[in-house]
Design a protein that fits this description.
SH3 type barrels; 3 domains; two-stranded antiparallel ribbon; extended
């Protein structure tokens, strides 16, 4: 028998929710079901679909802790030129991952710059002082919601994100020095011209 959980606390202190939280995990086969696991020792990115607790007399069940997460795999693709961060592509493959193998939660955002998403006004229904209320709020309307970016600039868990970071483009030092020297000569020429006219 199984139960589902709303969230679970990871080893690093992150709270992981079952509503589509993005996580990194190390793929290590579970003893009872090795066929549905990713290859051993590979850092994976995915989206949590469900948190599962095995309902038995195990210690985790007695303390209300989740045992596994059903995770939808995602592939880290090419670098997005606007954000200079890797793109994320959801896969149709899923894995049942032990909670202790999940390393951390990560931040994945929609690629609003490429898709030119707009801000719209929507009506929000809520309750204030026991009465149903409606108010207008601003919201982002995403186009192509599967166009995603892995935020590798986040400080929390940055060491675990390093394998997914895009390589830094090498700059041409000679070209930079040449342009800087030209800029300095031009600035000096302008100063001399101003001094001559004053």
């Amino acid at each position: 028998m199984f139960r589902t959980a709303e969230s679970v606390l990871l080893r690093n202190g992150d709270r992981c929710f079952s509503n589509g939280q993005w996580v990194l995990w190390d793929g290590q086969p579970a003893a009872f079901c090795p066929t549905i696991q990713p290859p051993t020792g590979v850092r994976q990115l995915g989206k949590v679909q469900e948190i599962i607790q095995v309902a038995n007399p195990e210690p985790s069940a007695l303390h209300g802790k989740g045992d596994f997460a059903l995770i939808r795999h995602a592939e880290v693709a090419d670098r997005d030129s606007h954000y200079d961060m890797p793109r994320v592509v959801l896969q149709s493959r899923h894995s049942l991952v032990p909670i202790q193998d999940i390393q951390c939660t990560v931040n994945v955002q929609h690629n609003c710059a490429a898709r030119q998403c707009t801000i719209v006004t929507v009506e929000q229904v809520g309750r204030e002082e026991q009465e149903k209320t409606k108010r207008l709020v601003k919201a982002v309307r995403h186009t192509a919601p599967d166009d995603l970016i892995l935020n590798t600039a986040q400080m929390r868990n940055s060491a675990k994100l390093m394998p997914f970071c895009c390589t830094v483009r090498q700059l041409d030092r000679d070209h930079i020095v040449h342009l800087s020297a030209m800029q300095e000569f031009e600035a000096a020429r302008c100063r001399r011209a101003r001094a001559a006219t004053s």
